[in-house]
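Q: Could you predict the 3D structure of Hydrogenase 3 maturation protease?
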Amino acid sequence: MLETTKEAQGSLEAALRCRLAKRRVVALCGVGNEIRGDDGAGVAVINALEETGLDRGDVVIINCGDMPENFLGRLVKLQPSHVVFIDAADLGAPPGAVSIIEMDEVGAYCTSTHGLPLSFLAAYLQRETNADLFIIGIQPGNLAFGASLTTEVAATVMAMRELLAKILFWQSGSGT
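A: Sure. Here are the predicted structure tokens for Hydrogenase 3 maturation protease:
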């Protein structure tokens, strides 16, 4: 989980580096409803990443909003080696904490506010693309209708932007 300690941040970075080491094409898919407070964390990460220049041939950034099923055709056509969903998830942790969630663990952490559960979408994508699929889950603090991101989740959004850019862009030899 991404917390305030450098050790915790380093552990998440190491796990993501390992998981994405043999990437060919990575689809980063932000999921959530921006008008439900921290439920929009995944979309906020994607919006922040769009500013980095990371969206290029080997990294594709997709804002799925609360209807990720609408992007299945695009993902199947893309045939990525990795699909990373970024979404709010009840980790039982303080707001803003982050964890990698395997697709077979989705039911334990993610309560769907989307059209279809991510586990259903992941099963389909796994069959059609054979991609490595996982979720970067961000613990929400407030899911109230009309709320903004909490301070803790907003800080995590920016930390995830920097971490993903570092792993996928700067360390691949494409950055300066």
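Q: Anything worth pointing out?
A: The two ends are 29 Å apart (CA to CA).
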